[in-house]
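Retro notes - structure team

What went well: the batch runner handled both jobs without manual restarts.
What didn't: labels got mixed up in the shared folder, which is why I'm recording both outputs here explicitly, each with its sequence directly above its C-alpha cells.

Job 1
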Amino acid sequence: MTELESSLFTVVLISNFIALILYVLFGQVTVRKLRKNLVTKELLGFGFISGWDILNVAQALAIPRGWAQKLKNSPLSSLFADADLLNKHTHKVDKILAFVLYWLLIFTFSGWIFLLLSEGMRRF
C-alpha cells in the first residue's frame, strides 16, 4: 500500500465512523419524528431493509431540488422519499444533518470503491 493509499484509507475509515454515528443520530432525531407524523409516515420511501428509510430521508433532504423532482417524476418514485413534503416537516438542523450524513456516506462509499479498485489494479 502506497503512502497516498494509506492516507486515503485513514480518511475514509474516520469518515465512515463519523457517518455511522450521524446515521444513528439522524435516525433517532429526525426520522423517528417523521415516522410518528401521520402525514409523513407513508411517504418515507420503500424500505428494502430495516433502516433504509433513514437513507431515503437523508437523500431527499440532501440532494438538489431538481434531482428530487426528477426522482419524483420517475416510474420508480415510490422507492424514494417525498422531498417536498419532508422539507415542509423538517427544521434547518434536520436538513443540515441530512446533508452532512448523505454526502459523507457518498464520499465514504466512493473512497472504499477507489481503494478496492486500486488494490485490484496492483494485482494485475
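Job 2
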Amino acid sequence: MKLEPVSITYGIHFRTVLFPLTFHQLVDVLEKKGYEMSRDLPFPYPPGRMIGIGDIARKGKTVIRVDGSGQSLSVLDISVKSALDNFKEVVSLLSENHNLDINKFARFYTFAAMYTSLTEKSPYETIAKAARSSVFDKIEEVIGEKIWPFEIRCGGADLQVNSENWFDIEVRPDFERNDSYVLNVVFRNSDRTRVQRFMESFEEKMREVISLVDR
C-alpha cells in the first residue's frame, strides 16, 4: 500500500517551569542553518526566554514551532526522516554553539502524523467489515437502523490517554471522497530512543496496518 504524508510533527516537551531556551540561542542556530525567521517575532530580538505560541522559522517546507506555555519545541515536516534529521540538527547545534543539551530537560517526546492511502475499494465498507463485532447487532436492535463501524481506533494497553507515555492509531475513510484511507497516529514517550525507533519503522508498519484493513 502506498502512503502519502499530509502532516508530520516531532518534538520535545520540557519538564522545566520556564522555557529553557532564549530568543538568542534558538534564533542563532536556526539562522546559521538557513532558516527564515518569522516576521511576527519582535525585532531586535528581546533578551530572555522564548514566550508565546507559534511558528518561528521556516526552511523550505520545514517549520520550527515553539509553545512557550506548553513547554514544547517541535519540527513540522514533509517526511519522517526529514523531521528526525532536522530535529537532531537543531539539538546538536544548540549543544555545540551554546553548550545546551535540551534532552536533559525532556519530559517526553511526541510524534504525530497524518497520512492518506488510496484504494480501489470502498474504505467505509472495508473498515466496517474489519471492525464489526456482535455489539453492533445489539445497537441496531436498540436504534432500529442498520449501522457500520465508521473507523478503527486503538490505543496502548494499560496506558492512560492523559499521560506522558501513550500512543493511538486511527484508520478512517476519507469523508469527502471515500476513495482512500486516512491514518492518524500519535506516539509519545519519555524515552527518546523508543519514539525515534517507532518513527524509523513507522511507514513500514502502517502499510501493513492498511493492508490488513483493505481486504
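One thing worth noting from job 2: Residues 82 and 88 are 10 Å apart (CA to CA).
We'll revisit the folder naming next retro.
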